[in-house]
Amino acid sequence: MMQHLDTALIMAFVERWQPDTNTFHMPFGEMSILLHDVHHILRIPVEGELMRDDPHPDVLKLDMHDLVRVPVDGPVGGKWKSKWFLNGGIHAEGLLVRGREMKIRDLEVQTYLFMLLGSTLFVDKSRDRLRPAINVFLKDQQRVAGYAWGAAALAYLYRQLGMATRVGSKSICGCLTLLQAWIYEYFPLFRPSQILQAPNAPRASSWVCHRFAGGDDARQRLVRYRQMLDEMLGEDVSWTPYGRDAGTEVLPSLYTGVIRFADVAEGYDPARCRRQFGYRQTIPRTMMVPKDVYRPASCSTYIVFWEGSMDQL
């Protein structure tokens, strides 16, 4: 886990996450990480081409071996064993070294972007492997800048938050920098010191985080954070940290529907969090319901399936 992350604070909020609505259930109502939060905190595009490509796992494995320019080490459909590809992911450090060794500029750029995105926006629980699905969106470098990376990162974080709520889950992944910075933006009680940044700089880089201790210290912090959240009132929240024009400044944040990254599709409904746009909260409409949902305690199989094509959604 990265040293700047306060795992106790993150877990205190995970305990309040409701995957059916993709919102945190607080004593005073619902809140969520929205697209305008991603825009301000990370400064990556939240509008653009939908990242919906979802190739078969065998195709992803072949793509990985094509990327590192080594022969396939196992049969298609069989069990793969390779120093590059293991347990559904590609080895991160080995990929970066291989990209430099090949001295092919396009592949060097592709492997660098793969490493960068896999260690920031789409972090895997393994810590040393990257999700192969990322590479699908990097093969055509002319299209990279046109993707809605912010919406994809948010969909992936929603999914990881949902999985972390299961009783069998022991950790969480995804862009936890986004989650922790979001907490700092809205909840002054948890904020560390802040440094002055340029107006268009990512707000995540403005927070001065020290190294957080684990073990007993983390458990004590978790107990304290739980009590603080239990006693919190709506007046303790900074509802519009970026100003009252969040909805008009970042129009995609008003979108209602499904956001996606590869095989991950999650519902997005800002109407449940009107106060984050500076409006009075009304009783939310009926929540968005997927066609099929399976969220077992073990997280071995976690399914959220939406009816209709992604283009229609």
Automatic annotation (TrEMBL):
The molecule here is called Aminotransferase-like plant mobile domain-containing protein
Q: Name one Pfam family in it.
A: PMD
> Residue ranges of the Aminotransferase-like plant mobile domain?
5-287
Q: Which domain of life is it from?
A: Eukaryota
Extract the PANTHER family matched here: PROTEIN MAIN-LIKE 2, PROTEIN MAINTENANCE OF MERISTEMS-LIKE
InterPro entries assigned to the protein according to its UniProt record, in alphabetical order:
AminoTfrase-like_pln_mobile, MAIN-like
Q: Provide the GO biological process annotations.
A: meristem maintenance
Organism for this UniProt entry: Linum tenue
